[in-house]
From TrEMBL:
Pathway: Amino-acid biosynthesis; L-lysine biosynthesis via DAP pathway; L-lysine from DL-2,6-diaminopimelate: step 1/1. Pyridoxal 5'-phosphate binds at residues 229, 265-268, 363. One of its GO terms (molecular function) is diaminopimelate decarboxylase activity. Its cofactor is pyridoxal 5'-phosphate. Belongs to the Orn/Lys/Arg decarboxylase class-II family. LysA subfamily. It comes from the Bacteria. Gene3D superfamilies: Alanine racemase, Lyase, Ornithine Decarboxylase, Chain A, domain 1. Residues 27-272 form the Orn/DAP/Arg decarboxylase 2 N-terminal domain. This is Diaminopimelate decarboxylase. The keyword Amino-acid biosynthesis applies. Substrate binds at residues 268, 304, 308, 335, 363. The lineage of its organism: Bacteria, Pseudomonadati, Pseudomonadota, Gammaproteobacteria, Lysobacterales. It comes from Tahibacter soli.
Amino acid sequence: MRFDDVDLAQLADRLPTPFYAYSASAIRERIGALAAGLAGTDSLVCYAVKANSNRAVLALVADAGFGADIVSAGELERSLAAGIPASRIVFSGVGKTADEIDAALAARVWKFNVESHDELLTLEAVARRRGETAHAAVRINPDVDAGTHEKISTGKAENKFGVSIDEARRWFADAASMPHVRLDGLHVHIGSQILSLDPFRLALERVRDFARELQDAGHALASIDVGGGLGVGYRDDRDRPVSAGDYVALVREVLRDFNGRLVFEPGRWLVADAGVLVTRAIRIKRGESRDFLVLDAAMNDLLRPSLYGAWHDIVPLVDAARAPARYDVVGPVCETGDTFALARDMPECRAGDVVAIRSAGAYGACMASTYNSRPLVAEVLLDNGRWAIVRRRQTIAELVANECLPEWRDA
Ligand SMILES: Cc1ncc(COP(=O)(O)O)c(C=O)c1O
Ligand SMILES: N[C@@H](CCCC[NH3+])C(=O)O
């Protein structure tokens, strides 16, 4: 399999597996398509850093003039280090601490997407202490079912994210009591891996109607942030993702009367298809009722199948003429949930074969852990036939480096 003009099987002969490989060209292509759809609008794309926070990926985002949607002080630091200016950074999340808010104000981030009244009070207090004014958007929870996996749905009333329109209305009415917060935006993000335009339309219409109401009441709105959520096709035979062009057209149509800036926070759509997890078969285990393809990658490296039952194409990089086979594809971790796929059809595999797990560029390496004391794997950037390690594999010494014995044992 060639990926960004690099032969992945040959690369696996040079580098120990497993490793993630990202195509810079594929990311640039998505960036270009989105930028083209937004040409001529007052808009800002703030890449959701959580989707893939490798610095080399963030540098591609910075090159494009895009900003960042961050959810922690760590993501703030990464984004700034990668060259994304603070003036293009929005700070989301239900659990921003006072220290994180302070750090973000010190860096002069553009906007806080505020998700609770307590957070609003904290923002006011921290900004007052600093003698500054924070710009804030209220994250609206529009109570819309995004039709996605329940663990990644964020726009229903029972989800922890955002506040109701009724609550937001009270915040705006009470804005004078918050002299150090300028409430001048609305934000909405209803979930991830959304494969239909309908929930987006519903959420946008609710936000648009509320924006009109606020403007009629004399509140100036500088921005509406429509979040991320655009899905990708993990399964060719089932997933029918909406095109970015249609999505952008929908946002532009619903918000056509809005004069301020439109903010987009795509994560997955920009990077998922640009990543492959390259692994090797350790062995085939013949079971009573099934055969197991045991890979050297596991749930700690790519959690999505275990966590959401998510589908990822699994492609052995072998001669297609091999006999057909069916495997439960598993990793070495001691959990039954360490399963990438059940009863998956593919060419017969042998120990040592290279196996590519596709569409792993989003929520892959960034969600990895060291469970079972398995070091974090390397990440490699491919670019038109070139490749470079952009995060080297963790060593076991590094993995245990922060551990120590209690002092009473040393004594
Ligand atoms: C506030 C916010 N914006 C953007 C995103 C990015 O979502 P996606 O990767 O689905 O585009 C997320 C994650 O779901 C999020 O929580
Ligand atoms: N981590 C999830 C998406 C969550 C999006 C973040 N709010 C996934 O892999 O699909």
